[in-house]
Write a structure and sequence with these properties.
This protein is α/β, with parallel strands linked by helices and about 240 residues long. The protein has one domain (about 10-235): Purple Acid Phosphatase, chain A, domain 2, CATH 3.60.21. About 15% of the residues lie in helices and about 30% in strands. Strands 8, 9, 10, 11, 12, 13, 14, 15 and 16 form a 9-stranded mixed β-sheet that branches. Strands 1-2-3-4-5-6-7 form a 7-stranded mixed β-sheet, with helices on one face.
Length: about 240
């Protein structure tokens, strides 16, 4: 698929508009802007498994490999001109230095032939060790501003991460809770992309003041599709 195309023929994602800019919510958790060939992912939290292991919490050490495989699939699909990793790309300040050599090479290969921006996050405020790309506190592209933590006073066009949004609905007595893209048309908060990341309900008080109450939409990520759910249907928890 050439840069600038949408994946609509696959029927798996959903097109949205943020501050007038068209974007495609991919069910793998990425956001693609076809007009500018920009792919955005957030909260990869690479090497979270090794970080937990250093603190005595033994978990399977496969999170980085799984996350990078999914990232490679998204990049191969859209072939973006620009990739923005929206902060907390690495789980701690030393995580990029702990990358196994093979995975470091895989990640570096993804940056070849495109502009790559690491947005500084609260987990990874410094540039990643020995990896290509530019590290920025925020990135302005036309009407859009990409940053890690959402700000209540931000103008329209902010794309942020940090909060790991999810949404819950109840249908026919069954509760369904999934990661989601959260937006009111003016701004968007990205789901966490990493394999070992948790999530926070979009109705939690941490989101207070970030969205217009009458405009909130949660684009819930299913196994193979993204489902648009109006804010009025969402449940806490």
């Amino acid at each position: 698929m050439a840069a600038g195309a949408l994946a609509g023929e696959r029927g798996d994602g959903t097109e949205i508009a943020i501050a007038g800019e068209r974007a495609w919510c991919d069910p793998r958790g990425a956001l693609y802007f076809p007009a500018i060939g920009l792919l955005c992912v957030s909260d990869l939290h690479l090497e979270k498994g090794s970080s937990l292991a250093r603190r005595g919490m033994l978990v399977p050490p496969y999170d980085t490999a799984a996350t990078l495989l999914r990232l490679q699939a998204v990049i191969d699909h859209y072939r973006p001109k620009t990739v923005v990793s929206l902060g907390d790309s690495f789980h701690d300040a030393d995580a990029s230095a702990r990358l196994p050599a093979a995975l470091r090479a895989d990640l570096a290969a993804l940056t070849v032939g495109r502009d790559w921006f690491w947005v500084a996050g609260n987990h990874d405020p410094r540039p990643p060790a020995g990896l290509p790309g530019d590290t920025v506190d925020a990135l302005a592209v036309g009407a859009l501003t990409f940053r890690h933590e959402p700000t209540a006073a931000a103008p329209a066009g902010e794309i942020a991460g940090h909060l790991h949004p999810c949404a819950r609905i109840v249908q026919r007595g069954r509760s369904v809770r999934r990661r989601c893209f959260a937006t009111d048309g003016a701004r968007a908060i990205m789901p966490a992309f990493g394999a070992y990341t948790g999530s926070l309900n979009v109705l939690d008080r941490a989101y207070a003041g970030l969205f217009r109450r009458d405009g909130l939409m949660a684009y819930m990520i299913g196994a193979r599709r993204v489902f648009a759910i109006a804010g009025g249907l969402l449940q806490p928890g």
